[in-house]
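stuck on whats below:

***
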Amino acid sequence: MPDIERFDFRHAVNLAMIPDTARPPSGAMHLLITGANGFIGRALARRLLSAPAPLPGRSEPMGRLTLIDLGFEGPEVPRVRRLAGSIADSSVRARAFDTPVDVVFHLASIPGGMAEQNYELGRQVNIDATLCLLEAARTQALFASRVPIFVFASSIAVLGAPLPALVDDATPLRPSLSYGAHKLIGEILLEDFNRRSWIRGRALRLPGIVARPAQRTGQMSAFMSDLIRELAAGRSYNCPVAADSTTWLMSVPCVVRNLLHAATLSESACAHRQVWTLPALHTSLRGLVDAVAEAFDNDAPERVSFASDAALEANFGHYPPLRTPAAEAAGFVHDGDLVTLARQALEPAL
């Protein structure tokens, strides 16, 4: 189990000893992204660095952006501090919070397929390290009197499979994979820390996000991104699920907009709810192929074939209509239509 008490004590001392010169300029924000070298993390970081005021509707400039991941590529960037290592490492977390953090975007996780294959690693990162990250935020709230906003990337995996004929805000949560169970535990922890005023918590249940990079990192649902990328580029693709399989999708730029929106929600908007299932577009795989053809003006339907992997279809191919009134009332959005989603899926989020 994570060494919470020892970490809290050392971290409390570090916070108390921070000199004023080490802090961001007065009024400037310190933002933290875990999983920052993932495809969503990179898009979010680009968006935060693209404007003088990183958060929509707020005027504070960004004094520092701290990124955590196992490794990084490319040159150093002004105002950006890159911490290479695991969030399961207490020294990495201590360095991340060595100056008080205003907003945490917690994206790091061991994804579904990998978490199924390696229970110990999945638990260490998805549960233990998430709890330690929340404890670091709690320590900051107690010893530095700054309560951070904590945006947690949860997942529709908390719903489980099979799903009912309609999913809405009242649908019971019955995760069928360890990854979904891990995310549900994270939601419960976030709500409890929020109740105690140690964080200002917001958790978003992400649908399928497209398009992931081509390299494999353990996501069982990567075929949806592969389909868009390959067909948009004019190549043939053998889809591993049937044409009438249905799913919920959102583009990378759209999920970045929703993450930023979560960070700027008012206290009143979060008073009675801190967890939202995001709006998403409901589509069949055949409908997605047709949207790619229209978006990129090509012959995508003629270059795709369909198989039927029973395991993939059971977990990712039988998504019913989705109703998300709570998220929509709070201002969260989907891509609008499938053609827009297909175009945005291959664009950087700026």
Remarks:
- The radius of gyration is 20 Å.
